[in-house]
Design a protein that fits this description.
The complex is a heterodimer. By secondary structure, chain A is of the alpha+beta class. Chain A has helices at 15-25, 38-43, 83-88, 90-95, 97-103, 109-112, 117-123, 129-136, 231-237, 244-257, 268-290; strands at residues 8-11, 29-32, 51-54, 64-69, 72-78, 140-145, 148-153, 158-160, 163-164, 171-179, 183-191, 198-209, 212-221. Chain B has two domains: 2-76, Beta-grasp domain (Ubiquitin-like (UB roll), Roll), CATH 3.10.20.30; 88-157, [2Fe-2S]-binding domain (DNA polymerase, domain 1, Orthogonal Bundle). The longest helix of chain B has 14 residues, at 105-118. The chains are: A alpha+beta, B alpha+beta. The interface between A and B is medium-sized, with 29 and 26 residues. The complex binds flavin-adenine dinucleotide (FAD) and FE2/S2 (inorganic) cluster (2 copies).
């Protein structure tokens, strides 16, 4: 029987209260969202926080909304949005179909009822799917601490495996995705069995200008890509013709620059092959969506 | 810490350690041993209960997180249908041989119930997707899928 070690339990009643509790209990305290990464780690005694601060009551962190201001529109996802809610969100799927591509294959439907997007990003598992999605979409994380809020591009959010820029007394409150018209996006994952973590996965967001790539974002997971990104493949694609040849070359570059490691999910060369191939497939599908040829 | 959880319609107040998992709260504190407990790693799904109507793996939820919430276990399924006392999914699992050893069955029944409450006429693919987080080592899933289809076709749905 696996049981976590003893800990104190506190319930946050607001974001400010959560920050105050984090300050009061210090670095040995942890926020508890869906608990589907943290509780298993505590059962294995890999994580032994002295205090858990439960944020599940913070309904203000559970919304998905489209915000319009002078800088244009952005999709705002609260940190406590559950995977199942993102999968069910029409507005998220309409603007960024890659959210639904990804959520269909993140864990299983039961886990998706509990796991949150904030917990996923903050867990910073190198095999995590949404980190790659948000990287491709150039999302911005909103982090709140004792001194107020700060904005962190998701491309600067991860410091390393299981490490983020979120400080001990800070909480991720929201992730914002800029909305630009004329784009398409897609996410492709290979897993060993239903509900498993990725062997490898790649996401692409593409904006077309006639036959050319006007802007592009790529994200890779489980293949040791630096901060889930493929910046050199993006550089190559920007301004290039949106053709199969360009996508193949971008896939080749993405595969060349990742650093997969062999594990129970597959050998290194297979994962590298997938990094390239899945980048190509996501680009192809994103382009078809941008052209209105595919839902 | 004192918590009050509504389980199958009845309120239970207990003093529990924060580290107590919901599955052990149900089994050991309340004696509701219909909720099984298998892998302990949130993979097998035998511990699934409905938390505020949604399937959740109770080995990965703290009992204190259920404070003030509603839990439904397999013990709360029977009695929702007037005719023979069984929920239509229970009757269909029995009729269609949707179980052999029965270890996965409580979780499968609850996920099926939640699916039918949301979608009274699920396709085979939708049923397979709904139970994809739960492992059955006996049936090969075929008869589970048939049972859920039968429950949908036969009874319409009973919501509660
Ligand atoms: C069986 C299984 C299969 C899975 N498969 C996949 C998969 O295929 N792909 C995938 O991407 N994920 C997968 N996951 C992980 C799942 O998505 C987790 O739910 C997720 O990683 C963590 O979200 P959570 O809300 O449960 O976070 P928690 O476990 O509550 O927290 C995780 C960490 O983040 C911190 N944290 C949580 N919220 C915040 C916040 N708002 N601000 C600051 N810190 C915070 C916590 O303190 C903790 O350190 C799987 C999980 C399981 C159990
Ligand atoms: S015992 Fe909970 S998922 Fe296996
Ligand atoms: S009936 Fe035996 S595990 Fe499903």
């Amino acid at each position: 029987m696996q049981v976590p070690a003893q800990f104190e339990y506190e319930r946050a009643t607001s974001v400010d209260h959560a920050v105050a509790l984090l300050q009061r209990y210090g670095p040995e305290s942890r926020l508890l969202a869906g608990g589907h990464s943290l509780i298993p780690m505590m059962k294995l005694r890999i994580a032994n926080p002295e205090t858990l601060i439960d944020i599940n009551g913070l309904d203000e962190l559970g919304t998905i909304r489209l915000d319009r201001d002078e800088h244009g529109a952005q999709l705002c996802l609260g940190a406590l949005v559950r995977h199942a809610e993102l999968l069910a969100s029409a507005v998220a799927g309409e603007h960024f179909p890659m959210f639904h591509d990804a959520e269909r294959v993140i864990a299983d439907p039961v886990v998706r009822n509990r796991g949150t997007i904030g917990g996923s990003l903050c867990q910073a598992d190198p095999n995590e799917d949404l980190s790659a999605v948000f990287t491709a979409l150039r999302a911005v994380a909103v982090v709140q601490g004792p001194d107020g809020r700060r904005l962190v591009p998701v491309r600067e959010f991860h410091v390393g495996p299981y490490q983020t820029v979120v400080e001990d007394s800070e909480i991720l409150v929201e992730v914002r995705v800029p909305v630009r018209p004329g784009g398409g996006s897609a996410y492709t994952k290979v897993e060993r069995r239903a509900g498993d973590w990725a062997v490898a996965a790649a996401g692409a967001a593409l904006w077309l200008d006639g036959g050319r790539v006007a802007e592009v974002g790529l994200g890779l997971t489980a293949v040791g890509a630096d901060r889930f990104g493929a910046p050199r493949a993006e550089e190559f694609l920007r301004g290039a013709p949106a053709t199969e040849e360009s996508f193949a070359e971008a896939g080749r570059i993405a595969a060349e620059h990742c650093r997969p490691v062999a594990d129970q999910r597959g050998p290194e060369d297979y994962k590298r092959h997938l990094a390239g191939e899945l980048t190509v497939r996501s680009l192809r599908r994103a382009a078809a969506r941008a052209r209105g040829l595919e839902a | 810490m004192q918590i009050t959880v509504t389980v199958n319609g009845a309120e239970y107040t207990r003093d529990v350690e924060p580290r107590l998992l919901l599955v052990h709260f149900l089994r050991d504190e309340l004696g509701l041993t219909g909720t099984h407990w298998g892998c302990d790693t949130s993979n097998c799904g035998v511990c699934v209960v409905l938390l505020d109507g949604l399937p959740a793996k109770s080995c990965t939820v703290l009992a204190v997180m259920a404070d003030g919430h509603e839990v439904r276990t397999v013990e709360g399924l029977a009695g929702t249908d007037g005719s023979d006392g069984l929920d239509p999914v229970q009757r269909a699992f029995s009729d269609m041989h949707g179980l052999q050893c029965g270890f996965c069955t409580p979780g499968m029944l609850l996920t099926s119930r939640a699916l039918l409450d949301r979608n009274p006429d699920p396709s085979e693919a939708e049923i397979r997707e709904a139970i994809s987080g739960q492992v059955c080592r006996c049936t090969g899933y075929e008869n589970i899928v048939r049972a859920v289809r039968a429950a949908a076709e036969r009874a319409g749905t009973v919501t509660s």
